[in-house]
């Protein structure tokens, strides 16, 4: 069985480790790196997975999952480059970093797969989009799909679409949290206790997401089913349109895409 090393054991890195273990991987087939000794000891105690340094991970792993912050990538790649074996698959979970960056700094021919996950990975419900670099094959993509399926859904996209993915699903949970926060506040404004307002909105969000996922109906169809003539919902929709909520979302996601492009260039 392949040895998988997760470089950077923050929230996403830990979520992936946990998902791989729940998916049937043995602790002995996994490694992780973590700069803070206390955090490393905590993770080893929790999961039984060994914490190592970057050079050791490079020497031992068949798959290296890079989950460090984008601003920390240069020293990590500098450590990896002289030790990386030619057949090692590098999987990047770093937002905004193109596969060409890894290909320039790592040995010639290194297969690289770029991934844009999102934070629901911590509850096993991530949406991850994957793209191959110049040297990554369909077999490499299949390996990455298998790994990430332990923590959610996976879709393949051309790398040119990764900035759009970052804006839409990478940042997407924040948009939903923002809307839920506003709706809970609206419930409080209307006189409901906070705990009741939270329960009403969170369960409504779960139910609506399940309907979208399981019915196969278009969102417009599902919305129209709730929107009776001259009823409460159509009055609310009118106010949302009057205040430009749809246009604001389009502009917000476009702005996130533009920022992702800027970060990639940097």
Automatic annotation (TrEMBL):
Gene3D superfamilies: NAD(P)-binding Rossmann-like Domain, ProC C-terminal domain-like. It holds the Pfam family P5CR_dimer. Residues 4-96 form the Pyrroline-5-carboxylate reductase catalytic N-terminal domain. Keywords: Amino-acid biosynthesis, Cytoplasm, NADP, Oxidoreductase, Proline biosynthesis. One of its GO terms (molecular function) is pyrroline-5-carboxylate reductase activity. Pathway: Amino-acid biosynthesis; L-proline biosynthesis; L-proline from L-glutamate 5-semialdehyde: step 1/1. NADP(+) binds at residues 67-70. InterPro entries: 6-PGluconate_DH-like_C_sf, NAD(P)-bd_dom_sf, P5C_Rdtase_cat_N, P5CR-like_CS, P5CR_dimer, Pyrroline-COOH_reductase. It catalyses: L-proline + NAD(+) = (S)-1-pyrroline-5-carboxylate + NADH + 2 H(+); L-proline + NADP(+) = (S)-1-pyrroline-5-carboxylate + NADPH + 2 H(+). Its main location: cytoplasm. GO terms for biological process: L-proline biosynthetic process. GO terms for cellular component: cytoplasm. It is found in: Cytoplasm. Residues 159-263 form the Pyrroline-5-carboxylate reductase dimerisation domain. Signal peptide: none annotated. It comes from the Bacteria. The keyword Nuclease does not apply. Its EC number is 1.5.1.2. Catalyzes the reduction of 1-pyrroline-5-carboxylate (PCA) to L-proline. Belongs to the pyrroline-5-carboxylate reductase family. This is Pyrroline-5-carboxylate reductase. It comes from Amycolatopsis suaedae.
